[in-house]
Amino acid sequence: MAVDPSPERFRDLMLDDEPGLSEVMACVFGIQEHEVRTYRTLLDSPASTVEELAEELDRDRSNVNRSLSTLREKGLADRERRLLDGGGHVYQYSATPLDEARELMHATLDEWAASVHERIDEFGD
Fold it and tell me: Is the N or C terminus of the chain more exposed, i.e. has fewer CB atoms within 10 Å?
């Protein structure tokens, strides 16, 4: 998974004496604050539907859907299909457990750092 933290976010993170989970996730994964909020809400409310999340987050369902798509792309959320008793189905979303998300943050940041090291090694060639 490629990461390309924006210089501004990375600079802000480095200047913060005690960055929180939200700031680190936003920088490392290149996601927005509302996507971090969605992730944190999923941690507290696993197996949530888009409708439940929209109500909890006080956001439009289409915005929640976009946040969930981004989180799934980044490996921070999963989706499962549940069949309804009356027919049809609903998707339920759960956050990647925090310990796995931490490992993913480490791996993503390490990959980015390695690419920066390679770039540094190319200077002067």
Answer: C
